[in-house]
Amino acid sequence: MAKAKKQTPLMQQYSSIKAKYPGALLLFRVGDFYETFGEDAVKAAGILGIVLTKRGNGSESETELAGFPHHSLETYLPKLVRAGQRVAICDQLEDPKQTKTIVKRGVTELVTPGVSYNDNIVQQKSNNYLASLVGEKGQYGLSFLDISTGEFLVAEGNVTYIDKLLQSFKPTEIILPKKQYKSFVENFGSQYYTYTLDDWPYTGDYAIEILLKHFEVTSMKGFGIDRMLLGVVAAGVALHYLNEAQHRNLPHISNIARIEEDRYMWLDRFTIRNLELIGSTNENAITLANVLDHTSSPMGARLLKRWIVMPLKNLSSIQERLNVVDRLYKDKTLREDLTEEIKKVGDLERLISKIGLQKANPREVVQLKNSLYAVERLKALTDIEDAQSLRAISEQLNVCESIRSKIEKTVQVEPPVALNKGNVIADGVDEELDKLRKISFGGKGFLLEIQKREAEATGIPSLKIAFNNVFGYYLEVTNTHKDKVPSSWIRKQTLVNAERYITEELKEYEEQILGAEEKIQLIENRIYAELLLDIAAYIKPIQLNAQLIAKLDVFVNFAFIAEKNYYVRPLISEGKVLDIKGGRHPVIEQNLPIGEDYITNDTYLDPESQQIIIITGPNMAGKSALLRQTGLIVLMAQIGCFVPAKEANIGLVDKIFTRVGASDNLSSGESTFMVEMNETASIMNNLSDRSLILLDEIGRGTSTYDGISIAWAIAEFLHNHPSARAKTLFATHYHELNELTTSMSRIKNYNVTVKEVSGKVIFLRKLIPGGSEHSFGIHVAKLAGMPPRLIGRASEILKRLEQERTGGEQIKDSMRKIQKQAYQLQMFAIDDPILEKIRDMLNNLDVNSLTPVEALMKLDEIQRVLKH
């Protein structure tokens, strides 16, 4: 049996605390350092690049050790959290001077990727959401909580809806029950940072009780989430998780809201990714959020991202946003004045959250006071009679004059960042504090007088008074003059070149000064803590100010970019027509070479005459850009932004679906074609009458015949859908699809023009009616830098194939026959009960579990139905 390691009392204390936080890296405060031991030390040294040493070298209790000074926590903590570590911060809970035994220690905070308010960890312009998820019978409850802003949202739905929300909100951490981890990875992937919890917080009424207690209510009806049982459990567990992380001061989490699915346009996860709205899989790609974000505050930047992934569906709400943007667009002076004041407000949302957490430093409290002065000026600027929406903002803004005045009277104009540096509280706030300050500063002046007096009395010109922690204030005399020292002085220390002495008078003043400094610190701490509690009473009105100013910031930003980028106000209606004249891609146009103009294009779609446009043309001609720009223009219009076009009439769209480009998901073991079919299936199963569908190169990932067949069937399905005439742009390199227009009245052919001059291709990037016959693939290969010999050989092969022309005509003939058969089948299907019965029998078959014998028996059954 191995001999157990002997442990010192300190290491015993460390081990017992460490056991309470499995999986967390423990920063253990010892004196002026945070130390890590054992495996934690090895991890910390690797991540932080600090020296790894050993404690108790060669002894039985030898263990790895790595540490850093406590004042460097702000530097090192973010590095650990960004490396995916959960960090438990263990502090000394009592003054070492006050105890003769080992100092009492305990974890004061657990910091995880999703639970942090530290400015160096959370990104300024993005929310830092902790997501809490729980599933039951195919339904999920989901909550998003940002401790740094106090935002708390809850939702419920199936896998598809929850997946879409996770893609939109991009949480930095997801918590879920241990037993649901496997199904979570199967449904949502392994790209998220997750932490699994035991089952008990999810059982009974525990989670609900936590919520009721936190919000001090008897039911969740007032928040409109009382019927979302799974959502409420997820939200309750999120608060439980914060409590476990030692975050119990949470008055800034003052509200919880439902994510209303019906209020927002449906953007599935593929669309959010394919349109590159707020993120991109391509390195250094510029997203729509990058182009649209010229906000003046981090609050505005965060709100803008949320608006981008959650466009509105309600006409009056969209018009209200557009009206405000219009007013600010026309009044440049007002816009500039508002921008100046919004910049002074700073990040009011995160500032007030720190007050709630009791973690705000004196400088941040002064910033809050300055922000409230800016709020007063914003209130005056938005009080405009003929601008209803701006006036509504003005009426709701709260200057919080009494607390602003209290901060002004209580805190120095320019206090230090740290409270323990002293001189935080202003003069005149506390009588005893003022008196002690006089003693402290007067005492120090008196010390100089003693020095001067004793120097004259003893004739020691170099005499000086200094201080150290070992024996306080002392008189220092160089060896040259030590024979002049009076006998009443008491020698305390001998140095190489000097000696140090103390006197009764010096000791008396030292006690007075040091006692005063200690008392000053205690009084300042008390007054400051009281002030934070007083400010906490104003959390709700200040949070409302933050929300209103964030909204105002986004409106001002939209007006600014409308002028800067020559955007126009879109006309939104309840109709179903989409008519864009002179449309441009908002991102691509920002990255054109200097002097090059963007080639604009018109897009017209309506359910009656031109429901589906088949767009042909070579690669690189601009088909994908046209599809994306149409989706982005519609989305921008429905978030309340002006759009890059000469004119835009947009009938409300409730869903945008995209299948753009060949995006492999090979890391998940799925081929390009499988990914493509998954995305396309999601579209076909969820479309509606107001949907906008953008399909690019469907069927490209399989053989030509398969690809054409699938693309053809999709176009046919969309055209003949019984209830939804979804507006569709279908870009393809299968020119055979041009045949569809001959028999389907609402399908029209267009092509992106290309000019061939002396064997060279010029991409004109203009959309014109009619199909295209050539793909110009060899020319694109030439532009890509393929070797000339290879290009020459490809041209020879193409000429020979074009002379034969058999393949293309065969495909076209086949397609015409398929089309004829499809219409014959439709005629039979109209009111034929036998075919309906067969269809139902086939629909109810589980092909995966059918044995060959059962399949034959089923065929025999279908034959008997046909004979009858």
Descriptive notes:
With 868 residues, the chain is α/β, with parallel strands linked by helices. The chain folds into 6 domains: 9-111, 3-Layer(aba) Sandwich (MutS, DNA mismatch repair protein, domain I); 130-259, MutS, connector domain (Nucleotidyltransferase, domain 5); 315-400 and 538-564, MutS, DNA mismatch repair protein, Chain A, domain 3 (Orthogonal Bundle), CATH 1.10.1420.10; 431-511, MutS, DNA mismatch repair protein, Chain A, domain 3 (Orthogonal Bundle), CATH 1.10.1420.10; 571-825, 3-Layer(aba) Sandwich (Rossmann fold), CATH 3.40.50.300; 833-867. It contains 27 helices and 27 strands. A 7-stranded mixed beta sheet has the order 13-23-24-25-21-26-27, sandwiched between helices. A 6-stranded mixed beta sheet has the order 3-4-2-1-5-6, with helices on both faces. Strands 11-10-7-8-9-12 form a 6-stranded mixed beta sheet. Strand 7 (130-136) and strand 8 (139-146) form a beta hairpin.
CATH fold naming of the largest domain: Rossmann fold
Instruction: Specify the oligomeric state.
Output: single chain
Domains (count): 6
CATH top level of the largest domain is Alpha Beta
Biggest sheet, spatial arrangement of strands? 13-23-24-25-21-26-27
Ends: how far apart? Answer: 83 Å
Overall residue-averaged pLDDT value: 83
Count the helices. How many?
27
* CATH architecture label name of the largest domain: 3-Layer(aba) Sandwich
Helix content: 40-55%
Percent strand equals: 15-25%
The CATH homologous superfamily of the largest domain is named P-loop containing nucleotide triphosphate hydrolases
Identify low-pLDDT runs.
663-669
- Shape annotation: elongated
Please count the beta strands (DSSP E, at least 2 residues each): 27
Structural class: alpha/beta
**Rg from Cα:** 36 Å
> What's the main sheet like?
7 strands, mixed
